[in-house]
Amino acid sequence: MDTALVIIFALFGTALGSFLNVCIDRLPVDRSILRPPSHCDSCQHRLSPADLVPVFSYLWLRRRCRYCGALIPWRPFWVELGTGLLFALSYLYFGLSVSFVVIAFYGCLFLVIGFIDLEHHLILNKISYPAMVLAPVIAIFRPPSELIALNLAWPWGGIVSSLMGGAMGFLFLLLAYLLTFAIYKREAIGFGDVKLAGLIGLVAGPQLVFLALTLGAILGGVVGIILLLLKLKERKEPLPFGSFLAIATILTLVWGSAILNWYLGLLHF
Ligand SMILES: [Zn+2]
């Protein structure tokens, strides 16, 4: 692996992270992601290129607007840093390959979905639906799972694998949705999460989709219990399950095959 390329992709990732921040800010409130250019939310001053250097501007200016001194929230910083890490790790893991491009793209997609759910408790159809159409097409060029060996001629193997994963993810969370509804007499899981599980299946394929959903449920459960114990959360207040599913999906896309191989190896032992 070329160290210079790792650094270049990490920096490219942080720059793309700035754009993802704009998407997270504007898509839930139906504003254009292209116009107007970036500005301070407090004083509306347009930001200069020096204010927009990802991660670094943030640290230089100590989280404050250069023009009015307003405190900037933490989220843009974490999204930029996260996207930079995503690109560096995907390159380290997959090298210069179709997998690298596809996994980095999906990582960006699920970062946006996860942060919007965290801040607005919403999973936007205008993101989920186009992604659901796109995923089987991407699967033609990169089948969702390296583990599955479908004896189908190109391009059908990838498409069938994607559609199988989508159906399984959707049906699995639909079952959980109906069961919890019967028990609690109210929506314990949002229907947006059910559609999100379908998207995760289309992206991850029939084997890794269960790893992603399980990992998401475990993450959500652990964080929920910790927040309850620290009394940071009321018992009735729902957690943004979609955010945990999104993080779990990113982890699964990068390391899922390795985790599953390790686990299957344990069973053989
Ligand atoms: Zn300002």
List keywords for this structure.
binds zinc ion; 8 helices; 269 residues; globular; 69% helix; mainly alpha
Fold blueprint:
Layout: H1 3-26, H2 56-60, H3 75-94, H4 98-120, H5 125-141, H6 156-184, H7 191-229, H8 241-268
Bound molecules: zinc ion.
Task: Give a verbal description of the structure.
The protein contains eight helices and no strands. Helix content is 69%, strand content 0%. The protein has two domains: 1-96, no CATH class; 123-269, no CATH class. It is globular. The two termini are 33 Å apart. The protein has helices at residues 3-26, 56-60, 75-94, 98-120, 125-141, 156-184, 191-229, 241-268. It has 269 residues and is mainly alpha-helical. The mean pLDDT is 91. Zinc ion binds at residues 40, 42-43, 45, 65, 67-68, 70.
